[in-house]
Amino acid sequence: MTLDKKDLRKTMLQRMKDLSGDDRILLTEGVHERLFQTDEWRHAQTVGLTVSTGFELETRPVIERAFQDGKAVAVPRCIPSRKALVFHEIQDITDVKPSFFNLLEPPESLPVIHKDDIDLLIVPGLIFDRAGYRIGFGGGYYDRFLTDYRKMTASLCFRFQIMDQIPHETHDIPVNKLITD
User: Fold this and answer.
1) How far is CA 47 from CA 100, 104, 118, 130, 180, in A?
2) Theoretical Cys-Cys bridge with 27: which of 43, 124, 128, 181, CB 3.0 to 4.6 Å?
């Protein structure tokens, strides 16, 4: 019997929430170190990514490292009426505030970063397969954003978040690279 996306999400959410503090820290540091060693990271001048919340793989250290490395950081803001993402450049992690669905987002007053100017887009997700398809949180915001995005995409994840195959539809767009612990 194959599970549908809703069942897979529920199972993985629980697994993410159950990951202990020490294990989470160790695995997260491994993911970050692998990211920082990639050519994609080294060559990117502008990195786009969400600010993690709750049980998600922590992204604040990635943002801090980007600032240290002299990279521009673009963080998305959801536009629920259009089910769209708009990326804004932040100068500090304190630029983001809780908003739509308690996501940490930049205010619309910050400079907009066009998708063609994002060299490396780190795409969030809950479950991934070896082909780069992902199951996110069900809104479809990133799949819509990725339809005409032509630069490098990657997802940060723990190894246990990767399955051999997951259900995907014709409008789902895989990421180019999975970076794990």
Assistant:
1) 22, 17, 6, 23, 18
2) 181
What pTM was estimated for this model as a whole? 0.94
Place of tokens 């949180």: 137
Q: Which residue from 63, 34, 38, 49 is spatially nearest to 158, judged by alpha carbons?
A: 34
Q: What is the DSSP letter of 95?
A: G
Q: What is the DSSP letter of 64?
A: H
Tens digits of per-residue pLDDT, 129-153?
A: 999 999 998 788 999 999 999 999 9
Among 128, 123, 120, 122, CA closest to 158: 128
For residue 107, the one-letter residue type is P
Torsion of CA 134, 140, 146, 147, to 10 degrees: 120
Write down the H helix ranges in the chain.
5-18, 21-36, 39-43, 60-68, 141-146
Structure tokens at 172: 């789902």
